[in-house]
Every structure is written in C-alpha cells, then in structure tokens.
Predict the 3D structure of the following.
Amino acid sequence: MLPRLYAILDTSCFQDNQALFWTAEQFSAAGVTLLQCRNKSGNAREMLEQARELKRRLGDSVKLIMNDRADLCLAAGFDGVHVGQEDLSPEGARKVIGEHLWLGVSTHIPEQIKEADKTSADYIAIGPVFATVSKANPDPVVGLEGVRNARTLTRKPLVAIGGINRANCRLVIEAGADSVAVISDLMREPRKSAEDFFRILG
Ligand code: TZP
Ligand code: MG
C-alpha cells in the first residue's frame, strides 16, 4: 500500500547537494517512506552520485524512486523507477528493473490511464491536478474531476500530482487518490510540512 504522502526531491529546488540531502533527512525524520529523486538537469554521472549518496544517507527506511531513468535506478540501488509518457515504456522499464522493483507511470488523460492499467505498473500517477510551477510545459490540469475519473479507470494504487498542498490535499484523497505527490509545498520547512501532511491526511 502507498503512504499518503509521496515526497519528491527536485534538484532544481536546491542550491547544492548538501541542501538536498539535508531536506531528504528532514523528510525521513518526519516519517516520509516514499521519496522520488527528480533531476532534470544533471548529467548521468552527477545524477548517479547524488542518488547513491541519498541511498547511503537514508538506508532502507525510505523507498527511493528514480525519475525517468531505469538504468540509474539499478545503478544507485533504488527501489523503483517512475516513467512518463516520453520515457521508456512501462514494459521497457520493467525489462530493465526486473520483476520486483517498483514501477510508476505518469498519466494525464483517460486513454493513458487505461493503457497504464494494462501494464505491470505498481502505481499510476495522474496530474497535474492543479496548476503547478514545478514542471516545464505541464499538461492541462485535470482537476479533482480528473482524479475522480482516474479512480474509475484503474484499481491500481493512484498517486495524484501537481499543485497539491496542505490546503487542498484532503480533497484530492477524497476524490479517490491513494497518495499525493508533492514538490513545492514541502520545500520551505520540510520536516514540519511533511508532518502537517501526515496529520491532515491521517
Ligand atoms: N508532474 C505533474 S505536475 C508535477 C510533475 C512532476 C510537478 C508537481 O510539483 P508541485 O510543486 O507539487 O506542483
Ligand atoms: Mg519522465
């Protein structure tokens, strides 16, 4: 089962790796157990070094998911990979990571949800639910209605993403998401804000 909060560490939010590692440790202290590493700007070698250090610091207490890159997921000893519509296909990624690691798939429209539902994905992400500043060229917002509709299209665990914060997260769970994936609203005071999410989402 997915935890209610799926924290995403986006490299572009940090001055340097030290700030990123500190934030990851604050999340862990708050009880975060599912964390995605999202690095859209580093080269592969930098991404791997960063990922390995994250793994070294967090150990096995946090499930670590690599964004986009199945190869780096394996090389860093992560627990899974998350692919979007322009990354390796779910089955391609599955071939790389094997049977046991986690595979997440991003979707934006009903057709993609139905497709992802037929794959070996362990969870499906739907979004952006609300407007977001954390993604370049985001797809159109799907709203709470998009989450409700996604819930009818798959029985896989459903992660909602995009513009989710402490003020709106309950509505997102009530619309049928199992978990909320969050970047911005965890950044200012990572430990406190993650604890707030857990308190709000019970
Ligand atoms: N995919 C859809 S929206 C988004 C991603 C990666 C960004 C989510 O970030 P935030 O700051 O929680 O809106
Ligand atoms: Mg991607």
Q: What stands out?
A: The mean pLDDT is 98.
